[in-house]
Backbone:
């Protein structure tokens, strides 16, 4: 019998539900079972209802690890609440597992706590003898750890509606969770219709039936039912992940050329913009490799239309020489780096902030670059528009550093209102001013006017060699010195337009945390929890990393200790051979120590996981010698 959201809702009116402020849910499975699609849908539905949302994908490093492997968990974490959500949070409240083995890796990563609900597919209890023994042993171990175990016949229930449960279990789970957390079933139906819009009516109806079946199962068989109140929002909101925001930012900036080579986790940004950019008159060029991709982008930018190239850490390594060319030839260029774990191919599907020093200093000679780091999904959109304007004003490559956490995290934010000022004006084809040189560096700012090919009288020879103001190759000591000074002075000119970073908390205290990029939400939540319990701790978050925002040294002096919080590697004093004299600091700490000559410490790790406010709070406790956990 076909069910509808109206008939199901009428049967659940009056159901007693516990009101909660927020919930953290994980869906974990083997690869290919659609856990991410289920969680993304749950997040989108919740955001459209008016809840705050943040999602984090759980992706194994292998493309398709063996089924039922302990380290091969594929899935997603969804944190949703009444208030704005800015990070993945601490321990999960509820987990839906399509087999019990994938839970072990998450348990090892301390993702759960005693009392966490584990809703586990129970088909493995009657599978092969070996599988049955493993299942029973796991259930015993999970019970001893204090988890609330609920075994659910997911496959059996799905087979009532489809012949292959593997292809429909995720939508059944979406229905299950929609009932447990009082999600709007009409929005869930709309989401399914959108997901399967190209699959035909039969596929859509099959998945709607699975959604409704999961919803009814939870209503009839599960003891826990919650509701998460919403707050009325002012104005329209959009819901997207960071890579989608980047792609919309590219189009909203009026950038018409994107040149790239596929690389995780950056590729989906170009997927998101592909059809729309070409419909708007732009092109996406997939080059044969990373070097060709940036070469194409540099050429397009030289032609007058500032281009963008999108990549991740290994791609940045390959693009280094062309980045140096863009610096020396002063060609505007936007470079998006969606960071992942390294070195080499490292952790392709995991988060890290390890490209900072490579971007700042990874070039032959002195090659100053402008580096921006958005801290939210909304900033991913707006910073691309800013990056193009800065690139053209200062004739420089501009980096926009995001990471895998921002790339895949879903969050609502106010719908941007398109502003004509975001777009570049028409190419200047007026006659080039007689006597004006191709690199007529302003002595105060280092900036020079940009000739556009086709301008009468504006012809010049482009070179990556040391050159004078007329772009003539020149090796005289004073010419090279003057060129290097001018290129560097542009950073100072931009820096003079910036404001000091805002302090989250009091202006003075015992501890100041400094972060950048996607760690902002977790840092500020940890600081708020610590301050609530009497700790004198504050934080700042840096969006401009080159040039650096002004006033940082003065801010640091008002705190007894300054410590960065980064998803980067640093040595721990006390480990074998590691002392205060030889320890290696995390990248932002290293950079700040050099810039300020202040003893900046660091808290960092390379677990490949987003920063958790609980871990940061534990470190604050350790630094201050106070008990701050509720």
Residues:
């Amino acid at each position: 019998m076909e069910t509808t959201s109206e008939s199901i809702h009428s049967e659940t009116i009056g159901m007693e539900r516990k009101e909660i402020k927020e919930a953290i849910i994980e869906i974990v499975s083997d690869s290919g079972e659609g856990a991410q699609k289920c969680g993304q849908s749950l997040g989108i539905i919740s955001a459209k209802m008016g809840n705050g949302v943040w999602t984090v994908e759980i992706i194994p490093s292998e493309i398709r690890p063996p089924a039922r492997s302990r380290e091969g968990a594929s899935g997603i974490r969804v944190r949703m609440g009444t208030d704005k959500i800015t990070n993945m949070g601490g321990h999960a409240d509820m987990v839906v597992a399509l087999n019990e083995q994938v839970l072990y890796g998450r348990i090892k990563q301390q993702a759960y706590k005693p009392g966490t609900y584990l809703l586990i597919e129970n088909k493995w209890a009657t599978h092969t003898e070996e599988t049955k023994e493993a299942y029973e042993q796991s259930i015993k171990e999970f019970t001893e750890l204090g988890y609330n175990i609920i075994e659910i016949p997911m496959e059996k229930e799905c087979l009532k509606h489809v012949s292959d449960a593997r292809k429909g279990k995720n939508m059944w789970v979406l229905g299950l969770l929609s009932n447990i957390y009082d999600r709007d079933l009409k929005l869930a139906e709309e989401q399914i219709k959108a997901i399967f819009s190209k699959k035909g009516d039969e596929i859509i109806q099959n998945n709607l039936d699975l959604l409704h079946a999961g919803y009814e199962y939870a209503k009839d068989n599960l003891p826990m039912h919650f509701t998460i109140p919403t707050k009325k929002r002012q104005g329209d909101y959009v819901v997207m992940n960071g890579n989608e925001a980047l792609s919309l930012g590219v189009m909203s900036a009026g950038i018409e050329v994107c040149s790239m080579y596929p690389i995780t986790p950056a590729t989906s940004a170009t997927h998101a913009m592909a059809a729309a950019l070409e419909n708007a008159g732009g092109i996406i060029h997939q080059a044969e490799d990373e070097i060709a991709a940036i070469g194409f982008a540099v050429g397009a930018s030289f032609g007058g239309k500032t281009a963008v190239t999108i990549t991740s850490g290994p791609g940045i390594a390959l693009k280094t020489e062309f980045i140096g060319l863009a610096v020396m030839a002063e060609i505007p260029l936007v470079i998006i780096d969606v960071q992942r774990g390294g070195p080499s191919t490292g952790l392709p599907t995991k988060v890290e902030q390890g490209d900072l020093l490579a971007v700042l200093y990874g070039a032959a000679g002195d090659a100053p670059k402008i580096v921006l780091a958005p801290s939210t999904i909304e900033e991913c959109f707006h910073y691309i528009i800013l990056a193009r304007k800065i690139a053209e004003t200062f004739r420089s490559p501009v980096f926009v550093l995001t990471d895998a956490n921002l790339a895949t995290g879903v969050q609502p934010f106010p719908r941007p209102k398109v502003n004509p000022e975001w777009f570049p004006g028409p190419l200047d084809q007026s006659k080039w001013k007689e006597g004006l040189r191709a690199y007529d560096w302003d002595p105060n700012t280092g900036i020079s006017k940009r000739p556009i090919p086709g301008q009468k009288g504006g012809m010049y020879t482009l070179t990556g060699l040391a050159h004078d103001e007329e772009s003539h190759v020149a090796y005289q000591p004073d010419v090279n010195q003057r060129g290097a000074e001018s290129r560097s002075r542009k950073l100072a000119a931009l820096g003079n337009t910036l404001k000091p970073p805002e302090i989250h908390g009091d202006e003075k205290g015992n501890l100041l945390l400094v972060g950048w990029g996607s760690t902002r939400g977790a840092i500020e939540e940890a600081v708020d929890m610590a301050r609530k319990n009497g700790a004198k701790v504050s934080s700042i978050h840096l969006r401009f990393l080159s040039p650096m925002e002004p006033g940082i040294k003065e801010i640091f002096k008002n705190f007894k200790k300054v410590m960065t919080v980064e998803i980067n590697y640093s040595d721990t004093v006390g480990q074998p051979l590691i002392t205060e004299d030889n320890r290696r600091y995390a990248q932002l700490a290293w950079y700040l120590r050099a810039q300020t000559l202040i003893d900046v410490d660091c808290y960092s790790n390379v677990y490949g996981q987003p920063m958790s406010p609980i871990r940061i709070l534990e470190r604050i406790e350790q630094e201050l010698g106070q008990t701050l956990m509720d």
In short: Residues 201-221 form the longest helix (21 residues).
